Fold Phosphoribosyl-ATP pyrophosphatase.
Amino acid sequence: MTDSSILHRLAETIEARKTTDSSNSYVVKLLTSGQDKILKKIAEEAAETIMASKDENTAHVVYEMADLWFHCLVLLAHHGLKPEDVLRELERREGISGIEEKLSRKTGQ
């Protein structure tokens, strides 16, 4: 099994890139271009993931999903968040029916 700490290492690298010269960093270019650019990349990568899935090309699904996750990590950094924030939320939801969890958001419970 692959070590999931790669998410944390990538997040740390993205965070460190915030203070580097944008001419040498794709991450800095994304972050300095603003939220709309980051969101556009996420939408693009999500669409590519969907198409890879529709094509039933599992290797391509993995490749596109990696791009999607990477850009989601950039969005988290944009908001000052870390993978741990999402992991805590997933942990909170663990064992809760998806239907129940969604209903709790509507009722504010």
About this structure: The chain has six helices and no strands. The longest helix spans residues 58-78. Residues 14 and 44 are 20 Å apart (CA to CA).
